[in-house]
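Encode chain A's predicted structure.
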Amino acid sequence: MAEKLFAEFPPVTTEQWEEVIQKDLKGADYEKKLVWRTQEGFSVRPYYRAENLKDIKHLGTEAGVFPFVRGTKDDNNWLTRQDYCTVSEGFEGANKQAVDGLAKGLNSVGFYVDGKKAIAVEDMKVLVKGIDLAKVEVNFRGCCCATAEIVKSFVAVAAEQGVAPEDLKASFDYDPVRGLNKNGKFCTDGYVAKMKEILEVVKDWPRVRVFGVEAYAFNDAGSSIVEELAFALAIGSEYMNALIEAGVEPKEAARRMKFTFSVGSTYFMEIAKFRAARMLWANITKAYGVEKECCQKMKIHARTSEWNQTAYDAYVNMLRGTSEAMSAAIAGVDSLDVLPFDHSFRKAGEFSNRIARNVQTILKEEAHFNKVVDPAAGSYYIETLTQSIADAAWTLFNKVEGMGGYVEAFKAGFIQETIKATSADRDKKIATRRQTILGTNQFPNFTEKVNEDVTADVVTRKAAAEKTSEMIGQPLEKYRGAQAFEAMRYKTDKSGKQPVAFMVTYGNLAMCRARAQFACNFFAVAGFKVVDNNRFASVEEGVKAALEAKADIIVACSSDEEYAEGAVEMANLVGNKAIVVVAGEPACKEDLMAKGLSNFISVKSNVLETLKEYQSKLGIN
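Encoded structure for chain A:
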């Protein structure tokens, strides 16, 4: 039926499509208007066709078959997970939260533990009390420096419960490089010997993963998707190489590893990232001599991005988390943790934990995301993205390998410098609103006051620790993309005064309204009170109303033509009673500046730096 339908229409060539597009562009630059240059360093075309897939080799494979682009199993029933902290809650408190979460939709739990301290068997019993270890995956975080004692206690409790070895699903993120990324040094010496010791503990428990690769640490520092993937693969390769040299079988090293990635808000790119990750890891393990396909499969846990979260307008984090969870689910991750919407500024409560859980429940029970394996397969766009990300990540991975591996590249500063360059570029795009953080640098909640749980420490970006003699490299700098804007608005909120930005709208109705809306949005980002107006009959009437409102900033909102006289008149009427700002980049800007007007805001402005200057002028320091 479909073949007959399409037979009714003549085929359209790419050349014909391009001809129509060029005509519609009316002379505009095709590359600038329609081609997206990604943060990852490659270009994305405005459309793709079947011919774009002719050189992609991974097409045609099935889920569960090498190189696992389409997934590592024949279903998409990922595990819904949340993590709880034994450090702040104690073993009993963390257990209570976990058991409650399992009753409300979870089938995987994580416990954040102090990896430097052993956990006695009796304490482990308290921690997993009421949890059926034969059915629930249990994960341990914070184990970068852990001894084998934590693992021994857990498997001892599992054995006492009578759990069959093949039924026990668990993971420990023993990740020595994590200490390197976080503190610039390994948290323990001789980590390979400890890795072998831990392997010995779980030799009879085939589904327990004991080595973690904390890929999300790169996202936390503002990396690109390609950098997160390439550096994660480099860490995995570092562990494979070290273990094989120490006499461990390649398949044993590979099947004990688990990768934890972030999942960001670039929807289709994130889907492609996970597909590319499985493909690249399968090829890496094969190169190391892993022949069994079950050991070539990358085990992926995903958590929604902490870098993307905001402390202001925090309920928007629910939308971010949902979009990110959708990417991870479509991509076929093994387990997923949606961070609570208030994760960035306070300990999650029952409400925020419930909402985070229910995101995944809705995706499964209502949207049926778990019913289809790799729904992105065959999409010209996503298949091309998958290959582009794989190619770019493979190039970067090989560059790291050529430097002697991840640790040597870190010592040389290559890892840090690469991520720093990317994060600086992202920061600039956020500051100039070329990248939007909804509710923070664009479309803020005008009336919002800072949540009482948000402190200066939450919104302040902390510089990475200075390198000391103990460090072998500079640590990665963890931060959130919104922090610079949050710190600015927090300063206003805590200053005890709220500047008033008053819109003097006059002249051309369409232009004055458009520019007033732009200016209101602009100044509200800094927590200023904005006063909008429909349209004044004259500049004089508008200035009078603004001065009566005790405005600190008076914004001229009109058309370019009417600024030539109106803005000058406004400046003369206001004098030094307030700051006069012109909304836009009028053609007469140079003439206006010659007549004493010096404040202009437009889409070309660095919003962050401009607003900081106004804060300074108004005495908010």
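The chain is about 45% helix and 10% strand.
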